[in-house]
Amino acid sequence: MTASRITSLDVARLAGVSQSAVSRVFTPGASASDKTTRKVRDAAEALGYRPNILARAIVSGKSRIIGLVVAYLENYFYPEALEKLSNALQREGYHVLVFLTSQKHGEIDDVVGEMLDYQVDGIVFASVGLSSDIAKRCQNAGVPVVLFNRYDDRKDIAAVTSENFEGGRKVAEFLLAGGHDRIAYIAGWKGASTQRDREAGFLAGLTAANRSLHAREVGNFDAEQAKAAARTMFDTPAESRPDALFVANDHMAFVAMDVIRHELGLGIPSDVSVIGFDDVPPAAWLSYNLTTVRQRARRMVEETVKALLAQIECIETTVTRNIAVEAPLIVRGSARIPEGWTDT
Amino acid sequence: MTASRITSLDVARLAGVSQSAVSRVFTPGASASDKTTRKVRDAAEALGYRPNILARAIVSGKSRIIGLVVAYLENYFYPEALEKLSNALQREGYHVLVFLTSQKHGEIDDVVGEMLDYQVDGIVFASVGLSSDIAKRCQNAGVPVVLFNRYDDRKDIAAVTSENFEGGRKVAEFLLAGGHDRIAYIAGWKGASTQRDREAGFLAGLTAANRSLHAREVGNFDAEQAKAAARTMFDTPAESRPDALFVANDHMAFVAMDVIRHELGLGIPSDVSVIGFDDVPPAAWLSYNLTTVRQRARRMVEETVKALLAQIECIETTVTRNIAVEAPLIVRGSARIPEGWTDT
DNA sequence: GTGAAAGCGCTAACAA
DNA sequence: TTGTTAGCGCTTTCAC
What are the boundaries of the signal sequence (chains A, B) (predicted)? Predict the structure, then answer.
């Protein structure tokens, strides 16, 4: 009973025109008289015809599919970004083929192969480091690539991030202005440019005030490791315990807050000020009420889409390789607010 | 410089065989001699050939793409499910074309049209109610459909959910055993079968003990509305205030807990016991430590994939239409634990 | 502006 | 087992 698909030929016959006329009517840039157009549209309507995208893709070489590779969906920044990205692309007439993968190199390799098989028109890598090998494969296939929330050291590949360095620096300034003394940091995965930039900015901020880090642990953007890091850092005598903590992302900051408050019985911000990075939704939940640096997902997505389409449509007028979106400090209650502090 | 794609013909020439021989080597069910296979594989390797999936799809009618429609990514149950689903499907050689949409009817309609354009081999609707019109369109197109975390009243369409009714009943029993007196419920969106079943089970549990609901508000699975619901419910004199609350999902439960604790200064579970549904990751975070009913995402995904593939591969041996996965109560600290309570 | 015809890269009869 | 051939549904010259 599976009604076999209606083709352009069926429409052509009903409309009393040639098959290519039908094609033209449904091809944006093509020319057809008003009369033909109407006849064809009517016939198509009557038959419930829709052009076969796959056939179109095979001949035109454009699938209108964008591949999206995401490696780290546990961080609630990514679902949000995914949603916005998908919507933005849909608006432009593209669709998203999602590939969830671990960071393992072989896996990403495979995934890229499969995307290329599907003739994707472009690929977005979210929170994924790219081997130059992979980048080259995409280039060879003529498939534009944009990195989302990461950039590549070789700088020859389009990337959209927040102003992570600036964000880190703002945190340092805020903490310093708050009169904190023993300032600590829980780092993310060192392979990520986000981690490196945030820490570098943070340190720069401290250094500018002639201060240095009191303690540092590594959480690798992982909840379990962050928990361990927080424990070693705070389960110490009061004199040497940090009184302020910057965590490389919100996800780990929540874990750290829970350890500080519920395992060690310390107060936030009375004993310890905590600041995160991302501003994922739970940061605004009252239990955390986390002061954090906001990644403007919408803007980042806009820039990503723009960069991608620019490449696809070959508007390659000196493509800006590294786009950084401003990242404001969102002041909530998890860190002491300096006297007379005003947002800038 | 875009290296034009290598085709099976290129491989055939290099290998000194016919183009169809190449096709056969790359087609799972086809026959070719060892010698031919080796020659072809070598040539393909040398050239970096990969079959063009789109061309294959157009002629075979199978795209190996599964469409996924998700309407409600704010609930952290869905990112998790999406990840597992994508992985499971990848393992079976399928890929996921994601469509994020609002519940609006027209939108889902459009989305279905687009999926059909891409010749998807099947569609999963997550947290989406289906009009019979849409269901019919998919059926006409011969595209199998599975509902995830919803079922359809017409029961003629495959669906995978948790045992929501049972889950709700367990909550009632737990709260009753805990000696609670004024038991309240914050409802989700009434259009969702999950909401209806959870509440029905919950009420059945109360009724079985000759009890009834003390208070009921509607949160519609929305954070803002849940906040308002919690306020009207708990900003009341102590005598009439509920001492136990079941919330239709975790997402709203977090909001309610924050209102109860941080806005009204009440204790959980000392003043109010709170129980949710889903067991999303934040439920285990110490700040919430939420007693909740777990939706076993992995199992649900397995069943979804199984149901989908069964239909695709026409193993339609009396397809079980409505699959419900067992949903255990996860006892944490947000609700008073009855004396001598043991998990069953 | 329109139709005829070629061809995108592949699979699937069919003969050999 | 193999090669030949005919499409799949569409876009795109190319004459008219």
Answer: none
